[in-house]
């Protein structure tokens, strides 16, 4: 009776916001279908959960009740196959919310991989690591967000004076993709707290930003706004936020982004209009001399992507990017994880300019630049069940070992930066 009472009390504390919203798994059969679905990308009425791709894989689209009739008519008119993946999104969100609430809270300064952690819990963990492992960990606040939250980078190094090459990692630039910060936190946890991985610090420094969009992440933790994707800046037409991953100044706005301030893929009024992307830009430019690998985690789709996102042309070092990605994928599969699709963003997916990975390579000069789209929750949408978080992040970490060893071997004894 007690559990039933808790369950009921948790439900009545929140109001329904996604009642009767459906998620459709749409299956394009050819390039024409893909182009027709691409016409829907910029609307503020539909929400693409997974990225539209050219390999005819299914794409998951959330549709509000008032748009479902027209949406189905559009698909049928063009003979595009579909199925209902989630019949009522509110039910999924409520169920996961209740599960989260029933998980015991962790002590301050600790982190859990059996639940999704709050932004405050994440920062408390970083500060605790700095206290407990002061010989390995240094924190740097790289700036504040629109709502004045601090963006904290953890620098992990066994020998800061060695001036080693840097691997930079971020996650959560899209607020609702909670598994991304969880993955980044697990990487931090394994690098700092697991002595078995200490060799990954011998010749490489790791700079990691767990949450690149703190305001949006915090906002999405409230059940009424679970599907929030953007930042939280005030825009025109009483719309809030910008898609931070369309806001970087590298072929900004060329493709795959919306000019509608209410759309989920809104590119912003100008490049780097968002203070969050400005902070990330400034930090990457600060370390660009040493930074040799950029990783940004997203969800979902089981994809390892490299530039370019604005054009189908391949970068000059595409062979190295692809070969390394295959080795990472092999390690993840060997660890029990799913196989990832590998390729340049535009050739695997629908074109989208203004992303952080393109900018990191094209402007900051970080040659090895990747977006990793982690697995999703299938009928649970973005919510990989809490009891599966550890499995996913552990499997993916096997690939991070490959990245770390590759950078170590590539630059060990053959290259060192001059002292400043």
TrEMBL record:
Q: Which cofactor does it need?
A: Zn(2+)
**Where does this polypeptide localize?**
Secreted
What processes does the entry annotate via GO biological process terms? proteolysis
Entry's Gene Ontology cellular component terms: extracellular space
- Active site per database record: 373
| Recorded superkingdom | Eukaryota
What keywords does the record list, in alphabetical order? Carboxypeptidase, Disulfide bond, Hydrolase, Metal-binding, Metalloprotease, Protease, Secreted, Signal, Zinc
SUPFAM superfamilies reported for this sequence: Protease propeptides/inhibitors, Zn-dependent exopeptidases
One molecular function GO term is: zinc ion binding
Q: Where is the signal peptide?
A: 1-16
Q: Which residues form the Peptidase M14 domain?
A: 115-407
Give the protein family. Belongs to the peptidase M14 family.
Function of the protein = Involved in the digestion of the blood meal.
Q: What is this protein called?
A: Zinc carboxypeptidase A 1
Organism name: Pyrocoelia pectoralis
């Amino acid at each position: 009776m007690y559990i039933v009472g808790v369950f009921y009390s948790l439900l009545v504390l929140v109001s329904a916001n996604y009642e009767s919203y459906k998620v459709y798994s749409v299956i394009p059969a050819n390039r024409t279908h893909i182009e027709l679905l691409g016409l829907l990308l910029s609307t503020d009425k539909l929400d693409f959960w997974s990225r539209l791709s050219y390999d005819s894989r299914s794409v998951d689209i959330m549709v509000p009740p008032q748009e479902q009739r027209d949406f189905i008519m559009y698909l049928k008119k063009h003979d595009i196959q579909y199925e209902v993946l989630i019949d009522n999104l509110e039910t999924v969100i409520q169920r996961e919310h209740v599960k989260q609430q029933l998980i015991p809270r962790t002590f301050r300064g600790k982190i859990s991989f059996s639940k999704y952690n709050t932004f405050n819990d994440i920062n408390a963990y970083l500060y605790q690591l700095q206290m407990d492992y002061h010989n390995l960990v240094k924190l740097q606040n790289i700036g504040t967000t629109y709502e004045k939250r601090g963006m904290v980078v953890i620098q992990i190094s066994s020998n800061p004076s060695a001036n080693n090459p840097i691997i930079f990692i971020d996650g959560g630039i899209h607020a609702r993709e909670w598994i991304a910060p969880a993955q980044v936190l697990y990487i931090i946890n394994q690098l700092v707290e697991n002595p078995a991985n200490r060799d990954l610090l011998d010749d490489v420094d790791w700079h990691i930003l767990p949450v690149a969009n703190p305001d949006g992440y915090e906002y999405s933790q409230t059940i009424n706004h679970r599907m929030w994707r953007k930042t939280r800046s005030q825009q025109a037409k009483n719309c809030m936020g910008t898609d931070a991953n369309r806001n970087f100044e590298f072929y900004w706005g060329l493709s795959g982004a919306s000019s509608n301030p209410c759309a989920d893929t809104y590119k912003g009024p100008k490049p780097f209009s968002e203070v969050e992307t400005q902070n990330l830009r400034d930090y990457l430019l600060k370390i660009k001399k040493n930074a040799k690998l950029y990783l940004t985690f997203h969800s979902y789709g089981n994809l390892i992507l490299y530039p370019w996102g604005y054009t189908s042309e391949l970068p000059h070092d595409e062979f190295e990017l692809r070969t390394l990605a295959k080795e990472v994928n092999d390690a993840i599969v060997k660890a029990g994880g799913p196989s990832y699709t590998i390729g340049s963003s535009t050739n695997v997916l629908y074109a989208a300019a203004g992303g952080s990975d393109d900018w990191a390579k094209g402007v900051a000069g970080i040659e090895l630049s990747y977006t990793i789209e982690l697995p999703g929750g299938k009928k649970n949408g973005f919510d990989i069940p809490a009891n599966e978080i550890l499995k996913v992040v552990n499997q993916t970490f096997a690939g991070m070992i490959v990245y770390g060893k590759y950078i170590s071997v590539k630059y060990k004894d053959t290259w060192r930066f001059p002292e400043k």
